[in-house]
Amino acid sequence: MKIEILTYLRDNPAQYSENTEYEGRIEPMSFSEIQNHEMIYNNGKPFPKVLKELLFLAGKSCYVLKHNVLDINEFQKDPREWIEESNKAINHPFYVIEICDFAESFLFVHLDEDDDPIVRHAELYCEEYNVPFILCLCRLSAFINHRIDIKKKDSDLF
């Protein structure tokens, strides 16, 4: 797959490229796994281009996203269960990209937007904190690029 939008992630595949013990390297999802996820989570329709690039580059592990909490299928399944348990709904096909607080909040994108969907933050227990259930952040490509910059800045501190 040709990477056209997430070139910054492609060109920065590890958080600590000089550290041989822990690089924090991205780990891709296979094309067949991406197609399987498209079948399950988007009724067989292609994912938005930036999401597809993200998964192709770093669908199993990405140093700018908290991916390692759950198995990749639980990562998608569990937030859907949490939404149901908290009597909330997301009325679009969506894909979870990060779980922020276990069973409380997560980041996701709608799959029926354009090729660079908006990252949204779902806060399941929002009534307790007096915040909206879903907040819009920014485009997925800008979000990933910003996170890379933050990680690069943090790694320069050491």
Order of helices and strands: HHHHEEEHEH
The low-pLDDT segments are none
Task: Work out the strand percent.
Answer: 15-25%
Q: State the separation between the terminal residues, measured CA to CA.
A: 35 Å
Main sheet properties:
4 strands, antiparallel
Helix content: 25-40%
Which whole number gives the mean pLDDT?
86
Task: Assign the structural class, choosing from mainly alpha, mainly beta, alpha/beta, alpha+beta, or little secondary structure.
Answer: alpha+beta
Strands, total number = 4
Describe the protein's architecture and organization:
The protein is of the alpha+beta class and about 160 residues long. Helices cover about 40% and strands about 15% of the residues. The protein is built from 6 helices and 4 strands; from the N terminus they run ααααβββαβα. It has helices at about 5-10, 30-40, 50-60, 70-85, 125-130, 140-155; strands at about 95-100, 105-110, 120-125, 135-140. A 4-stranded antiparallel β-sheet has the order 1-2-3-4. It is globular, with a radius of gyration of 16 Å. The model has no long low-confidence stretch (mean pLDDT about 85).
